[in-house]
Amino acid sequence: MLVKLCLIAASLPLLGFLRSSIDGKKPDYLQKVQTVVKKWHDDNGWAARFSPFFSLFIFLYNFFVWGVYGFTSIFEFVGFVIQKIWWLILWVWNEVLHPTVFALVKYLWHYLVVFSWKFFAFAFSKIPGAFQKEKMLFAFKKLLLLGGVSGLLGLACLLTGHIVVIVVSALIVFYLFQYTVFVTISYCRTDKFPEISVFPGLKLSVLWLAMSAMSTAILVALSQFADVYIVAGLSVLLIQVLLPFAVLFGLAFLATTLYLPAYMSEADDDVDMLQFLKALLFRAPKLIVSQSFQQIGIAILSVIPAVVFLLLNTGIKQVTGKDLPGWGKHVVQIEYHIPAITENYKNSKQLDTESVTLQQSRDSLEKVFSRQIGVARNQLAEAVDLKNKIEDRKIHTIERNAYVGENQGFSMPEIPGCTQYEWVVTNVATKRELKRVSVSTAQKPGSLVMSQKWTTPGKYNISIRTKAPCNDGVDQSISVDVVSLPENFTLNDLPEDRYFVSREAADYAIDLINKQIQENQLSKKEQLDKLNKEIGILTDRVDYLQFSTKEHIEMLISKILAYFGLVLLLVLYLSAIWTYWVTYHYDMFNFEQEGKHYWVRQLEEMRAKNPNQPLLGIFVLIIFISVVFALMRSYDFICHLF
């Protein structure tokens, strides 16, 4: 321990001497031996005699002085090191951390905490103004107009589904929506945005809407004809232009709807759209972040409407069996009814045409059968008349002259009790018997029939007589004149004779006619029943289609009424938050815009101290991080090797 103390005591003078050799400075209280001894000699005093002895004390004194000097040098060195370290810390803080990390923390604190509180307070400050009676009534009137027009156009889109109707309706609704926003701002902020500024602002922003809608319409048209090769190839070029146009111009229109009035009040109606878009771009982060705080105010304002909606929803469900979401889903399917009604109408017309055709067929068939049955009945009446001409106990034949070559028939009804008869044909002029025929009805009862084919003209006598046994005999005769055929005439050219040879032939014909009448009546009934059945089926189908059409019309009217009821509910709900929503965006555009921005002021303070900031701090921080990262990688590599 003593040795260590001696070594430390000996090292201090050495340390002081080394410092003096480096700095070239010596302690002020160091004594020079030569100077003191010389002074002693010059004084020629008693001290001169003891100078060798006192020189040793001077040496020890200087040794002690060098030790003190070395000891103070240690403290001065430590102070120097501490000073340099402190300087380094201050430099790192002022030139590296403060312009970068600390500035980032300040920015985060200001824009995340301070600005969040400002947004929160701003959102709450707008709530009381939304409950003013005049503003709510004004909002209800304007939204009722907007909702009515939008409802009608939306209904047209749902019913037609045509792309042209949808595009035109969207343009009208967007324009009317923007007009409602501008008029509301003009009513609520008359001092900053007078009513005279409404329409110039609309004209200024409608250009964005038109260009966006036109681009979108062309894109839709391209998609409809994408299967055409030329259109598909052209789409590759046009989409690169039209798609950004549709998106950017749509966003520009939305931005003008919400924030153009605020910019116009700031720019004194002298609006430069490029300057407006530039200002909007710089304020976009604030406007986007503030949307979440706006929802807080909307949620608070929606409490009372939500309670009312719940009560209305309960009542609607109790009465109709569907709640509001159910009616919403029900109304969305409204486009089904118009095609169904149209289809039912077409099918009903087609079925009516088929029914008329079948009725005409039935009427025609009934006329045909009635005509056939009428003809048959006339034939029956004629046959009965012809049969009645055949008299008992008289010879029956045609009532005209006979022609040469004609085969003429004669008959007489059978006489009861007589079975044997004889026909005799005699030429009246020559008294010559031409034919004698015996006829018996014993085996085959019936009329007595004989036929005679005339070969020569003349007058002939036809007679019939009974032969025994016969209780009531008869002898009948008739005269027949046979003439030659007219010149250029044949037997086929002769008119048909309307007569029956015998009663049996008449009865047979009458039976055939009656059978034909019955068959016609049965066939008529069957075919008419078949047609009536088909007509009945068509009538039932028409009745069903008419009933279905009636149901579709009732459902369509029901859905239309429910649709406008939902629109009215939406208008009532928006009336409570509309003024808040519009004025929030209007006032937010210029919120905290007075003077320089916080980040600009901070940047100016940094550059006032060092013009190279904050790039210098970022550069040093990047270098330091890179070095640390490289050292860590090297350390890991060395550890991996060993």
From TrEMBL:
Coiled coil start-end: none
Chain segments annotated as transmembrane: 48-69, 74-93, 108-131, 143-176, 196-222, 229-255, 293-312, 560-581, 615-632
Keywords: Membrane, Transmembrane, Transmembrane helix
Name assigned to this protein: Uncharacterized protein
